[in-house]
User: Which sequence fits this backbone?
């Protein structure tokens, strides 16, 4: 098992930028080995308050700096992220237990998100004139004002991507950020942040705090001008309830139980090969990963055979190079949760087609990618998010049956349809209750489309990140309407009497113009 390649001096330098006056630390374990990775300083409530106070001061100057300056700095950050790919991969792997390839995906995505927001912010947030209901009398213009300092709360599974998707649009829109990092993702976030600081983002503008979720996350929510939360649905509801007390806006990116529908006109071998990464990337610890596959009867046997073979062929292991296909789970808690769900399913009659075993010979948190059949509603993994490398395969007959089964979930985050016919795939996609649907692909299409919005329906979230929608979260739209003076505004009843007829005539003319 390889030791972490991270230089202890680099770790100490990075963790120094966590605001912490408590003197307390929390031990962070390297998932590949179970050994201590580092001691993370823990913030207190006053550290969060001080972070907000300083970020608010920095934000005023940042907002005044304007789009062109912010864009130049963010584009430089984009370049630095790519220049530091190796270091960022090492950090993500050491903290999460991902493979080299999956860590690369994160780095590349963080860079892509940065580039998109740097280039798009001005166009999306420029504002401009808007049509008035009484055109000759009033003109109206909208401008977008940064909300102030956003509170960003992130989980441990995709520390770079998830930080970038909330922090970068906030910065691009002229906001500051106080981010509550999960203990297990803090180093990656600090490494990413360093690229932005080196590119010219003021240090105080993006503060990172760490510590207990309820206490420190709660304080981040309390003080924020806007809250971006990524994590479980249960915690997301708590955050939303707390934010509601201050009427603070929130975006919530929550859990999923994402379905993949395999129609009977696919090449089963190809479909199986494409389905595997959708289920097992990051050991299934990805909000958009597939946990339910519905396969049409005509192709079911061939697909299952191929899918089991592909899953069995995946190379598990701890390596800081590209020699493995699948890494490990990130913590003992994750291993316990995944093992318990599989045990529950087997006890209640499910069949393990492949996998279903922990692999302590490879490292403390390794678990084999697992394919189950015979999963029923009585089992915990039927409806509850596993957030691990476990997928249930179920056979269906008609498209309608598959759509009903896929939509039979409290969640609605991501979905996927595999078909040889684009028309068929689009028909089924349009009926699915999910914030994103990928055709002939599991999750990467929508996850990497940084210019398109991403988010959940039902219990999977509120609001959208990425795309223009992701930027608009961080601004208040302010309308300034002005009396033109060309026609005096009515003040008295007689004024209205005089104006009513010409205004009705004007409305009729405008209606005619619109019709033409
Ligand atoms: N939809 C998405 O984009 C997305 C992305 C990644 C993960 N997730 C979801 O995240 C979950 C896994 O992450 P997790 O187990 O770390 O989630 P979690 O909800 O336990 O924790 C998420 C973050 O919230 C903090 N937190 C905990 N209690 C809090 C409180 N009361 N107030 C404020 N912050 C608090 C935690 O410290 C952590 O930083 C899964 O359900 C997964 O689907 C969703």
Assistant:
């Amino acid at each position: 098992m390889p030791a972490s390649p991270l230089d202890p001096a680099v770790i100490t330098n990075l963790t120094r930028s966590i605001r912490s006056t408590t003197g307390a630390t929390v031990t962070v374990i390297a998932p590949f080995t179970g050994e201590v990775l580092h001691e993370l300083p823990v913030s207190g409530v006053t550290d969060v308050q001080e972070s907000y106070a300083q970020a608010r001061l920095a934000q005023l100057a940042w907002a005044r700096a304007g789009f062109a300056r912010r864009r130049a700095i963010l584009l430089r950050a984009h370049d630095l992220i790519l220049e530091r790919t190796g270091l960022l991969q090492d950090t993500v792997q050491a903290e999460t237990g991902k493979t080299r390839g999956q860590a690369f995906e994160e780095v590349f995505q963080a860079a892509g998100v940065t580039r998109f927001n740097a280039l798009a912010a001005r166009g999306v947030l420029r504002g401009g004139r808007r049509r008035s209901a009484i055109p000759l009398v009033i003109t109206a213009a909208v401008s977008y004002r940064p909300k102030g300092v956003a509170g960003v709360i992130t989980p441990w599974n995709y520390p770079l991507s998830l930080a970038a998707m909330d922090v970068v649009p906030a910065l691009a829109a002229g906001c500051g950020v106080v981010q509550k990092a999960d203990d297990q993702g803090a180093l990656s976030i600090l490494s990413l942040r360093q690229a932005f600081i080196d590119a010219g983002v003021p240090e105080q503008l993006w503060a990172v705090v760490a510590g207990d979720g309820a206490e420190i996350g709660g304080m981040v929510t309390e003080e924020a001008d806007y809250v971006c939360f990524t994590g479980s649905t249960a915690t997301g509801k708590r955050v939303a309830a707390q934010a509601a007390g201050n009427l603070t806006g929130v975006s919530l990116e929550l859990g999923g139980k994402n379905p993949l529908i395999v129609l009977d006109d696919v090449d089963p071998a190809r479909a199986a090969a494409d389905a595997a990464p959708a289920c097992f990337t990051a050991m299934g610890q990805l909000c958009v990963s597939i946990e339910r596959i519905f396969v049409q009867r005509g192709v079911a046997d061939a697909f299952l055979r191929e899918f089991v073979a592909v899953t069995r062929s995946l190379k598990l292991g701890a390596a800081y190079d590209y020699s493995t296909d699948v890494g490990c789970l990130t913590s003992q808690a994750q291993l316990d949760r995944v093992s318990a769900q599989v045990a529950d399913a087997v006890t209640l009659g499910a069949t393990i087609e492949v996998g279903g075993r922990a692999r302590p010979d490879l490292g403390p948190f390794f678990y084999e990618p697992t394919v189950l059949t015979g999963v029923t509603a009585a089992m915990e993994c039927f409806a509850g998010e596993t957030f691990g490398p476990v997928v249930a395969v179920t056979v269906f007959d008609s498209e309608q049956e598959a759509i009903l089964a896929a939509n039979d979930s409290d969640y609605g985050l991501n979905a996927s349809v595999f078909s040889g016919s684009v028309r068929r795939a689009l028909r089924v996609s349009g009926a699915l209750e999910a914030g994103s649907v990928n055709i002939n692909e599991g999750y990467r299409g929508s996850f990497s489309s940084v210019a398109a919005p991403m988010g959940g329906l039902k219990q999977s979230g509120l609001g959208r990140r990425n795309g223009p929608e992701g930027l608009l979260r961080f601004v208040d739209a302010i309308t300034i309407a002005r009396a033109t003076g060309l026609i005096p505004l009515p003040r008295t009843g007689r004024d209205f009497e005089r104006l009513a007829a010409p205004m009705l005539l004007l409305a009729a003319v405008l209606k005619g113009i619109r019709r033409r």
